[in-house]
Amino acid sequence: MTTTQIAVRLPAEMVDELDHLVPTPHGSRSEAVRRAIEMYLYRLAAEHDAIVYDRQPFTDAEMSLADDPDEWSSAPQW
C-alpha cells in the first residue's frame, strides 16, 4: 500500500491525551491517528449504509429469513 504524508494540526491538549491514553502497541502517534481515522471512515460508511437500507427496506421475503431458521437454507452460502 502506498502512503501519502499529510500534516494535521492538533491542540496540544489532544496530543497530550493521545500520548497518555494510546497503548504502546500502536508504536507511534502516526499509527494511532491512522487507526482512529480508519475507524471513523468505517463508521461513516456504516451510517451511509444505514441510510440506504432505510430508503430501501428489506422485503418480506428477506425478513422471513431472520424469522424462521428453516428458511435460511435459501440464503446464499457466503
Structure description:
The protein is mostly helical. Helices cover 58% and strands 0% of the residues. It contains three helices and no strands. It has helices spanning 12-21, 29-55, 60-67. The mean pLDDT is 85.
Tags for this entry?
mainly alpha; elongated; 78 residues; 0% strand
> What best-fitting shape do the alpha-carbon axes yield?
elongated
Our estimate of the beta-strand percent is under 5%
Q: In angstroms, what separates the terminal alpha carbons?
A: 27 Å
Number of H/I helices = 3
Element order: H for helix, E for strand: HHH
Brief description of this entry?
The chain has 78 residues and is mostly helical.
Give the arrangement of secondary structure elements.
Blueprint: H1 12-21, H2 29-55, H3 60-67
